[in-house]
Amino acid sequence: MNAHVITEFKKGMKAALPVVIGYIPIGIAFGILASGQGLTTGSVFLMSLTVYAGSAQFIAAAMMAGGAEVVSVVSTTFLVNLRHLLMSAALSPYMKKFPAGLQSVIAFGITDETFAVSENYAQSNEPSEGFFLGLHLASHITWILSTVLGAIFGASLTETTKWGIDFALSAMFIGLLVMQLKDSKSLIVSLLAGLLSLVLKMSLKGNYNVIVAAIAAATAGVIIERWNGKQS
Amino acid sequence: MERKTVLIIMAMSIVTYLPRVLPVLLLSRVRMPEWFMRWLKHIPAAVLSALLVPAILMPGDTVDVRLANRNLLAAIPCFIAAFRTKNLFITVITGIISMLLLNLVFSLF
Domains of chain A: which residue ranges? Predict the structure, then answer.
């Protein structure tokens, strides 16, 4: 590694700070809940190492505790994590010049939070491979350590719902969403997605409401933009 | 660790990795139209909102907008903290503490 890559790597690790700080309480919360739902510390470690997706891990732990079938847990995970498809696509222009092997490594670390940081950074900088690696490594290590820590301590805590920890995931979504609200268009898209998702959830089984509502609302956003563009 | 657990985790890791890696590998080799990139910009807010709204307004099987809905009540200080600080950590801690206090208050009645 040359000096430039190391400087960029450090820059990425520094940029990871808000993600790291956000992951600690959420990771601990996941560890506590998962161990309360019967997952061993080893399983929590393995899941955080190989799956590395907060909301899907919360949902999967709950489903596994309820004795759900393999196919049902895995297909729900797939649907919940399909949103990364769109985040990965949005980041792809910045990784165009990287070799495929490096792209495959960096892509593993794309999460809601690291995406928000990279997107924000890319608005005024050209993110390099070192930047992505530093950001993703720091974030992933924090996630693994916090979830394992939570699992170790979780065994000594009972009735985690009493402590408010079960609200950690919704609180994280609120924080991430507010950071995405940059103008009235993003507000309209969000309200539309939320409302549609709620209506679909009432009428559909499973987790399809999220993907259908998100795609419809984003499409509406583009249409609104085009319409506004023609008016002015 | 049970075999079923390991099997679930391994399968989860595959179905999670594919949507992360495929667009980067494929799209960086093809030029995407401008409208598509604008569409993508709306996706994160749309997905987050689509996950969040049912989680808050539909804690059970039905929509609940009563004051007894703790998720709804806890979301209010959480949103205020998020708008004021734009800080994920403070927002999450605000959410957990709000829910903790609500649980304490509700347990009194």
Answer: 3-180, 182-232
**Residue A75 tokens, joined:** 């297909």
Interface check for A27 against chain B (CB to CB < 8 A): the answer is: no
Of B13, B25, B52, the CB nearest to A50: B13
Lowest mean pLDDT among A4-18, A150-164, A180-194, A208-222: A150-164
Q: Would the CB atoms of B42 and A177 count as touching at under 8 Å?
A: no
Give me the residue label for tokens 């494929």: B26
Q: A152-156, B66-70, B92-96 — which is least confidently predicted?
A: A152-156
Give CA–CA dist A19/A137, Å, rounded. 11
Cα atoms found within 13 Å of the Cα of residue A141, Cβ hemisphere only: 9
With a cut of 0.90, is the ipTM above it?
Answer: no
Task: Return the higher-pLDDT residue of A142 and B36.
Answer: A142
In contact, A64 and A37? CB cutoff 8 Å: yes
Q: What is the pLDDT of residues A197-217, one digit of tens each?
A: 999 989 877 667 887 898 899
- Chain A: residue whose CA lies nearest to B73: A167
Task: List the end-to-end C-alpha distance of chain B, in Å, as a whole number.
Answer: 42
Residue with tokens 């903290």: B81
**Looking at beta carbons, which residues of chain B come within 8 Å of A86?**
23, 40, 43-44, 47
For the CA atoms of chain B, what is the radius of gyration? 20
Are A106 and A129 in contact by the 8 Å Cβ rule? The answer is: yes
Domain boundaries, chain B: 46-108
